[in-house]
Automatic annotation (TrEMBL), chains A, B:
Classification via SUPFAM superfamilies: Nicotinate/Quinolinate PRTase C-terminal domain-like (SSF51690), Nicotinate/Quinolinate PRTase N-terminal domain-like (SSF54675)
PTM summary: Transiently phosphorylated on a His residue during the reaction cycle. Phosphorylation strongly increases the affinity for substrates and increases the rate of nicotinate D-ribonucleotide production. Dephosphorylation regenerates the low-affinity form of the enzyme, leading to product release.
GO process terms (BP): NAD+ biosynthetic process via the salvage pathway
Keywords: Glycosyltransferase, Ligase, Phosphoprotein, Pyridine nucleotide biosynthesis, Transferase
Protein name as catalogued: Nicotinate phosphoribosyltransferase
GO molecular function: nicotinamide phosphoribosyltransferase activity; nicotinate phosphoribosyltransferase activity
CDD domains on file: NAPRTase_A
Keyword Lipoprotein applies: no
Length: 466, 466
């Protein structure tokens, strides 16, 4: 929906680009997108945002306005002329959107000249970090909610227009629908929403408010029962209206609780509805929900059929950001490395491939191996940091995870609907052993590096230390 | 920059609107925007986002595409025809953007018919909640950083396009510049940025990388010294290049540290620079900074001149969201209230005004009083919840804070630049006594309600309890 231009970037990308341009240093390079730490203390993340970033990159240009603005910032005319014709002409290899992904292993890889690769860095990180965070959060909520209906209600508390993409990512993570109309319009997922407290308040009495609503919105009628007093006013009025609807051959879909003790109230409301012969009327609940509150409600057998989740979902609380980075691994014909005080932050050189390891009968063993892209088969994978930790994978299936999604600046895979991505994600998760999906202290998925990659990394470290 | 259409809303706004439309219930109403809890355990918040929300609301329309989409969602043709001509024609009264604001007191007030007021709710909350959060976070960082230069580096870790507005809000909170080019383009604040590790890595040696950069970016040259080894490689190379620049009559602006112990390294680097006669070369630092880390660096007298702050600023960590709400207080000729189990969540009825209380010589006493809009003068303000707590303000100056910003759907105040808003905010903060600005456990600013408002609220509670 949004029009991004190529100035949706950090200034340093353009400062560096000016130098590459002047020095004829604009050679082919490889950058890896990966993250270092799983969010939410979880056992996996769900890769999301690929579809948008590919669409954005395909169309990314500097506008007239961008060029005029940059003219005031110490860029040279020849370089500005270059930017005027800028478009991304490189190759992108990536895991599939919706894939389950793990730290350290590149999730996406950009091969392009240095200028093009740098100019897209910021928007790529901005898009993938956020959607991956939210899809992962949504999936944690899905995991505790079982087959209950999950709705995203977060737009009002989202971080500005970040909310537009949060709703999409929530669907990938397993949500059923959203209150967000514009994102629903653009991605075609179910939208949902009935009444706020203001609706009830605007009437002199709650019963008339419910009656009017039921009369004009009979198809998906959900009555919000906590404006004045849930059990003494909201529920009796909702039951009256539900019975009036029955008499007209209609059915009240649900009542919604938005305050108070949701477990207690849901149980009381369920009894009241059942006693009135309204066992088909569902109970929806909202109010500062997250995976912990929902888990607790589920453990208490609260008879809630629909959870509406807002703030905590769309801002990915408590993390708020995925620490995804974009690191140079090859340029000007040579492997490249960044040294750090901490070995875990030393980057992995060379163009690489990531292999997911499976048994002969396609069972995930819980390991990904990172190797040089030219390696055909990996015998042993090493812990990237800790010495003496390694795993023999010689006899196991090794599935190459990074596949072309863009070549010469053009998408080379069929566009996928958000439902297709969500279905793929669900399938991948179903194949992941339970211990990695455990809510607390999940088993750690192993990500290792091949012999050759380890040797190359260690050789480059030694080279730079001298 | 972004094109928002009126479907940037929650579906329930439109469901309610359909009923108001059918029932001729689309009467005049008043909604209050306020928040309940200060973020970051701070003593105040900074109101931001007003300029955008007024611009957005002025232009908010349903597009052809919106109408076509809604047609599939059970809305009636007459109502869709109404939406086609929708525009906001109401009045908005608000505090000034950049104002220091406190919980409970309305920061902004919408007077419009119910449909118009509801349709703008979601985007209004989305915009004001986020920018107020980030301006407040930025100001906390400014408070500990003294007169050091503060730069926003957060776009890559921002929540998608939320980052576009985060940079603007950071300026309002007291930042000096940003790496974010597109927002700088649109709001005219200083942008900043030089080189990433990838620049150094792309060369065979660091010295040549620095030389090339200094040759082509001499005006704002900042060299990143930690790609391989800060003290053994980065600094000696930077000093060599700084001396070469001197010989050409140029000056190296700064070196930047992005890893390691920043206090230790900054001190070592300062000594190395000074010993080389480069006392004019500044030291910039980045890497997971927030107000706590900066306070610690300041306490250690780390000789850092420029702080680059990313993730923690632009996602407003740890809160991530301001809990701003939009509550109906008047409709269809009557004051309106929402009852809650908790008295602190009962809403305040009637159209109201907020008064800031000052002494005769214009010193803030640290109190805001909420009153009915028709009250001329408030003698006593009551704690909104706790009985027996009140404050006599009869002899004090009472400054009305909510002023018209939009009438009949048109802006009625002059557009302000982000610099003007930031300057206003700085002035307001200077007038706020230190105890409210304290980093830890700040003094609590009092927000009370007038006698008449209290009586009206209590009368309506009693009415609904019967």
């Amino acid at each position: 929906m949004f029009q991004f231009t190529a100035t949706y970037t950090d200034l340093y990308q353009l400062s560096m680009a000016q130098v590459y341009f002047n020095k004829n240093q604009n050679q082919q390079a490889v950058f890896d997108y990966f993250f270092r730490k799983l969010p939410f203390n979880g056992g996996y993340a769900i890769f999301a945002g690929l579809e948008e970033i590919i669409s954005i990159i395909e169309e990314l240009r500097f506008s007239e306005r961008d060029i005029a603005y940059l003219k005031e910032h110490d860029f040279e005319p020849e370089f500005l002329a270059y930017l005027k014709d800028f478009r991304f002409r490189g190759t992108i290899n990536a895991m599939q959107e919706g894939e389950i992904v793990f730290p350290t292993a590149p999730v996406l890889q950009v091969e392009a000249n240095l200028i093009e690769a740098q100019i897209i860095e910021t928007i790529l990180l901005n898009t993938l970090n956020f959607q991956t965070l939210i899809a992962t959060k949504a999936n944690r909520i899905r995991n505790v909610a079982g087959d209950k209906t999950l709705l995203d209600f977060g737009l009002r508390r989202a971080q500005g227009p970040g909310g537009y993409y949060a709703s999409r990512a929530a669907m990938i993570g397993g949500f059923d629908g959203s209150s967000n109309v514009i994102t629903g319009r653009d991605y075609g997922f179910p939208i949902s929403g009935t009444m706020a407290h203001a609706f009830v308040q605007s009437y002199d009495d709650e019963l008339t408010a419910f009656r009017d609503f039921a009369e004009h919105r009979p198809k998906n009628c959900v009555l919000l029962v906590d404006t004045y007093d849930t059990l003494k006013s909201g529920m009796p009025n909702a039951i009256t209206v539900a019975k009036e609807m029955e008499a007209r051959g209609q059915k009240l879909l649900a009542i919604r609780l938005d305050s108070g003790d949701l477990a207690y109230l849901a149980k009381r409301c369920r009894i009241m509805l059942d006693q009135a012969g309204l066992d088909y009327v569902k109970i929806a609940a909202s109010n500062q929900l997250d995976e912990y509150v929902i888990q607790s409600l589920q453990n208490q057998n609260a008879p809630i059929d629909v959870y509406g989740v807002g703030t905590n979902l769309v801002i990915g609380k408590p993390n708020g950001a995925l620490d995804g980075v974009y690191k140079l691994s090859f340029a000007n014909g040579k492997p490249r490395i960044k040294i750090s005080e901490s070995i875990s932050k030393v980057t992995l050189p060379h163009k690489k491939q990531v292999y997911r390891i499976l048994t002969e009968d396609n069972v995930l063993i819980g390991a990904d191996a990172i190797a040089l892209s030219k390696e055909a088969h990996i015998s042993v994978m090493h812990h990237p940091v800790e010495p003496f930790k390694n795993l023999n994978i010689d006899d196991l299936k090794q599935q190459a995870m990074l596949q072309p999604v863009m070549q010469q600046g053009k998408r080379v895979y069929p566009e996928k609907s958000v439902q297709e991505v969500a279905a793929f994600s669900k399938k991948q998760l179903a194949a992941l052993p339970e211990e990695f999906k455990r809510f607390d202290n999940p088993h750690i998925y192993k990500v290792g590096i091949s012999n050759q990659l380890k040797e190359e990394r260690d050789r480059l470290i030694a080279e730079h230390k001298n």
